[in-house]
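User: New here, please read:
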Amino acid sequence: MHVLARALHPASIAVIGGGAWCVAVIEQARKFGFQGPIWPVHPKADQIAGERAFATLESLPAAPDVAFVGINRHSTIEAVLALAQMGAGGAVCFASGFTEARAEDEQAADLQDQLLAAAGDMPILGPNCYGFVNALDRAAIWPDQHGMTPVDRGVAVLTQSSNIAINMTMQRRALPLAFMLTCGNQAQTYQAEIAASLLDDDRITAIGVHIEGFGDLRKWEALAHKARDRGVPIVALKMGRSAHAQAATISHTASLAGDDAGAQAFLDRLGIARLNDIPSFLECLKLLHVTGRLDGNGLGTISCSGGEASLTADMAEGRNLHFPPLNTIQKADLRAALGPMVALANPLDYHTYIWRDTQVMTQAWTAMMAPEQAVTMAIVDYPHTDATDWDCATQAALNCVARIGRPFAVTATLPELMPESVARRLLEGGVVPFAGLHEALAAVEAAARPAHPMADPVLLPTRPDADCVLTEAEAKQALAEFGVRVPQSVVTTAILARGAVTHMTGPFAVKGVGLAHKSDHGAVRLNICADTVVEVAMDIGTDEILIEEMAGDGIAELLVGVTCDPAHGFVLTLGAGGVLTEILRDTVSLLIPASRTAVRRALGGLACAPLLAGYRGKPAADMDAILDTVEAVQAYVIANAADVGEVEINPLICAPDGAVAVDALIRKAQS
């Protein structure tokens, strides 16, 4: 097992310090039912929180499996060194004032380096870390209240925020929390490593990670591989923004990709679904605990209210969910259960006249559980006054799972209308008790994300000082050497323009050289004939001009761009191109290297995809040529990863017989 296993599943605990936080750790551990020895360490106290105290670490009966170090940051370093030398399993470093405080304290980073040196090979959590609660083994290394209860199996949550961790332990949604762990500064032991260690425990059904920053991308890739091999789903609550290369404002790509595109692309690549709020995050973990990943995004819903049926359909709009139409067998079974007065559809309003008839409710609800639906939901809101009359719905749901065995959920439209006692009863019977319709739909969408084959490792970012911008002609020549098709062109002066186009075929595009946004300066003129090329060049007014043969009309215009994101690698952005790119904002982002299959799939998800496929009788674009261009751009970036900061083709003119880059930009570090 991973070296972390001993610390995370301890049989003995040391608590170093005598303050209120240390007292709380001892009290919480005993309250939670920890049966092993707890050894307080304090130079003067004889007893702390009812446990015999030891004056020094060296006087302990044995090396502890885990130690909570609740003393100041300077003393923490000394204690961690002693723990490592005596062979302890690991330490939770509670003290703050390390790298998270370097803006206020110049010594902070140096102290963290000293802490790492002291720990050596001994795992440490933190510093600036609350610790963890292990509900599987009743081990709470936690200096505060928490709302967890012992479980035999359940989900693990890892977060970089101790306060958010406390709040999540207080959830009243019947989510079986097996592990809550805070990571703090991740000075030595990273969030992804901890999650990978927890995958060795078969009692953990799913893992949720609250992420502020990824750090070492290779560790996350290793985690994703291991999770897929073990069949344990991971979902993320990703917060914060990467330090994206904001200097790259000269391109459309940098504006469109934004700060978060790299993070989302990385999660997509890892197969980790992302939730945007804590309630949906917890409900998704609950769903995964019961069902694992869903086998599709088909959703069936049943309620005794037309208003609820419409509400569900409206709230699902815009999500990657669909309501499969009822098949012939479903219609026959529903008609037999409900009679002729109910309009049969999905979502289904089954009316109220079968309410209280558990047998008929079961018959109707099971009829909705067709294979086309990855999950079926009954909308039920339990009143907080007297919910006795709603027991028929609870029992019908339990019957459905017992009889059919496919995923089934009972969903309250409002979170507070799913009583925890009912939720626990449903959960024990294999029914997902969703607290909130918004949360339920978000959870189903996330759990239904297809698990695509694992991609190759991402191309890691390199130099951040890429501030040399090539001219358009230089950029096109560089990309052409890797296979990008570009128009025939020449760079010249206005005076020499007429002679420069003698051996070229008009009409021409005439562009100013040395301007970042040529269109904004009126420095792009199209469909210029040879006789007027000098006049147009003079009017543009730049020292040099670029003259190109016009590419001709295409089926569509695309943007193909790459930015170097310091936190996530090289972000490949594909989208609708042209002068309206930033208005349309029809883009998708991947990380390099992206396979041809992944690029094709991404292009198919664009709003402009129907144009590429041939819209309203028009011919389709040459998709192979488009894919060849994207591969060529990636090849250029991979070959020049040491100094490239940004690449952009906009637009790429896509025609039935090829694809031509009519504008290009490259930003590199100076050699």
